[in-house]
Design goal:
Helices cover 22% and strands 32% of the residues. By secondary structure, the chain is of the alpha+beta class. It has one domain (6-137): Thiol Ester Dehydrase, Chain A (Roll), CATH 3.10.129. The chain has a 5-stranded antiparallel sheet, with helices on one face. Strand 4 and strand 5 (128-138) form a beta hairpin. 23% of the residues are buried. GO terms for molecular function: fatty acid synthase activity. It comes from Caballeronia choica. One of its GO terms (cellular component) is fatty acid synthase complex. One of its GO terms (biological process) is fatty acid biosynthetic process. This is Dehydratase.
Length: 139
C-alpha cells in the first residue's frame, strides 16, 4: 500500500473504489457468525416475510465494515481518527456493494495533518445504502 501524503492530497481527490461480490445468503450467514448479530431478519426468510420484507437483507453494519475496508485500503488503521455513518437504504440479496470516498477538507488538529472524507456505499445501480464521513491523519 502506498500511503498518501498530506501535501499530495487535494480536496476532491477520490479514494480507490472498493467493489465487492453481490450479497448472498452465505455472506449473511458468515457475517452473523463473525459479528454475533443473529437477528433473524437477516437469515430467516419466513421471519423476514412476516416483517413484510420480500426476503432477508444485509446487516447495516456489514456495509459499515466494507467502508472500513475502503479506508484501510487507503491508509493504515492506526491513522483513522473517526468514522461516522448513517444508513440510507436496505442492501438486498443480489446487491453488489460499491464503496467510494473523496476528500472534502484538509486541516490540522492536535498537532496532526488530517483530511475529512465523505464516504458512500451504494449498490451496482447507484442506489445509496450508507453514507458517512471519516477523519484520517496523513504525514
Amino acid at each position: 500500500m502506498t500511503v498518501p501524503r498530506f501535501n499530495d492530497v487535494k480536496v476532491g481527490d477520490t479514494l480507490p473504489a472498493l467493489t465487492l461480490p453481490a450479497i448472498n445468503r452465505t455472506t449473511l450467514a458468515l457475517y452473523c457468525g463473525a459479528s454475533g448479530d443473529h437477528n433473524p431478519i437477516h437469515v430467516d426468510i419466513d421471519f423476514a416475510r412476516k416483517a413484510r420484507m420480500p426476503d432477508v437483507f444485509a446487516h447495516g453494519m456489514l456495509s459499515t465494515a466494507y467502508l472500513g475496508r475502503l479506508l484501510t485500503g487507503w491508509v493504515p488503521q492506526t491513522q483513522i481518527r473517526s468514522m461516522a455513518v448513517r444508513f440510507t437504504g436496505i442492501t438486498h440479496l443480489g446487491n453488489q456493494p460499491i464503496c467510494t470516498g473523496y476528500v472534502v477538507e484538509k486541516f490540522e488538529a492536535d498537532g496532526e495533518q488530517r483530511v475529512k472524507l465523505a464516504l458512500k456505499c451504494a449498490n451496482q445501480f447507484g442506489d445509496e445504502k450508507l453514507i458517512g464521513e471519516a477523519v484520517v491523519a496523513l504525514h
